[in-house]
Amino acid sequence: MQNPSAILLVIGNEVLSAKVADENGPFLARRLHALGIRLLSIHTIPDDVEEIVAHLDRVRARCSWVFTTGGVGPTHDDVTIEAVSRSLGRPLARSPRLEEVFRAMHRRHHAGEEIPVAALRMADVPSGTRLEGDPDYPTLVVENVVMLPGVPEFCRFQFERFATALAASPFKLACVYVRLGEGPIAPLLDRVVADHPTVEIGSYPRFDGADHRVKLTVESKDEARVIAARDALVAALPPGAVVRVEGP
Amino acid sequence: MQNPSAILLVIGNEVLSAKVADENGPFLARRLHALGIRLLSIHTIPDDVEEIVAHLDRVRARCSWVFTTGGVGPTHDDVTIEAVSRSLGRPLARSPRLEEVFRAMHRRHHAGEEIPVAALRMADVPSGTRLEGDPDYPTLVVENVVMLPGVPEFCRFQFERFATALAASPFKLACVYVRLGEGPIAPLLDRVVADHPTVEIGSYPRFDGADHRVKLTVESKDEARVIAARDALVAALPPGAVVRVEGP
Fold first, then answer.
1. Mutate to test the interface with B, among A10, A38, A42, A47 (most CBs of B within 10 A)
2. What is the pLDDT of residues B7-46, one digit of tens each?
3. Does B136 share its domain with B218?
4. Taking the CB of the first residue and of the last residue of chain A, which one, N or C, has fewer CB atoms within 10 A?
C-alpha cells in the first residue's frame, strides 16, 4: 500500500470527563506519521456501544486502517469488542488461542492462580479476528480494524509489534521560518498554495517573542515537490523576511 | 440549562500529523467538566471545509454547545469560519466592530502600523455572530457554535471569558480503590451498575505496583445517588478488598 491512511477512535468516558489525560492519541499520531501513514481524524468517544458502532460504520470504508484504543477489558464499560462485532456483522466467538493467552498471562501475574471465569469474556472476539504481533500478548485485528488496549504501556506495545510492518514511504517536510506575521504573507501564501496543490502547506503563527512569527511547513511524500514548493515560498517572500529554512 | 452538554471539534492538520501536540482538547475537557458541562465527544479533524461542515451538521443538534478550536486566522488553511457559515446557512458578512477590534489589536502589537487589508478577512463572520466575553478580544459565537482560536493561550483566554457564565450544577465524584484486579470484580461490578443506572461507574486498572489494582469511579450530579452507589460497591466487594474510599 503506497499511501496508507488511518482513523483513530479513542474510546473512554474517562478522557471526556478529564479523569485521565489521553496519551494514546498523541502517541499514535506521532508513530503513524513517522511510519508514513496519514492519520485522517481522531474521534474521542464514550464507552457506548451504539456510539462506537456508529463511528465504525462511518469510518471503516474511508481509510486503510481503523485503530481503536480502550474498552477491551473484562468490566461493564469495556464494550469496544462488542461494537466491532456488531459493526462488522461478525458474531463474537471464543478464541481458544486467546483464552490460553489470558490464562497464561493471569498465572504469570498472579502467582499461578487461575483466571476468573468471568474475565475470560475477553477471549470472545469477532469471528475472523487475527492475533498478530507478539504471541504472548497479541494484537487483535479483524478486517481493517485494530483493537488496541487503553492502558498506554500496553497500547504502545501492541501497536509497535503490529504496525511496524505497515511502514510506507515516509513524509518529507520542509520548514520556512518567517519574521513577518500571517497577515502580510497571507496573499502570497495563497498563490504558492494554488500553484502547488499536491503538497500540504501549513502556517503556524506564534506570539511568544521567538526569532520568527510564523513557521510555514511544506509536506508531501514527493521530495522534489516539497523542494519546489519550499523554493517558491522563499522566492515569494519579501527580502529579509526569511529567518531560516529547514529540510528536506 | 440544568444539564448542558458540549461537543468539541479540534481543527488542524498539524495535530493529525503530530507537528503540534494539541493542548486545547485536554484543557477544554478539564474546564468543561469542572463547570458541570458534559463533554460528549472530541473530533480532531483536518483544515478541510467539507470535513468541518460534515461534522458540524452531524453534531450541532446533539448538544448544547459546539466548541471549535483552530482555523480562525488569515491564511489559506484557516477555514473554520467559512465552514460554520456553510453549515448554518449564514453567509459571511464583515463585522464592523470586529474589524475595529483587529485594527486596534494590530496597531497595539505592531507599533501603530495598519493591518494588511487581506488580514481583515478575519472580520468576515457568519451573519448573526455575537461578540461575547472580552470586548478587546471577543469570543465568536453564532447560534450554539463557539469558534475558539487554535493558539492555546488565546483559546484559554476566550474560553474563560465566555464560558464561566455557562457553569451548571457540578458533577459529584466518589472513588473506590481496590486491591483485586478487574477479573474477579467484574461480575459484582455488573450487578452494582445494573442497580444504579443513573450514575456513571468507571473501572480503571493499573499495572504499576501502586497500592491498588483498580480505581472505581462513581459520578453523577446527584450526590445522594453517588453515595448510594459508592456504598453498594463497597458492600459488594469481598472483605479486605477496599484500599480506600474518596468523596463525595
1. A42
2. 999 999 999 999 999 999 999 999 999 999 999 999 999 9
3. no
4. N
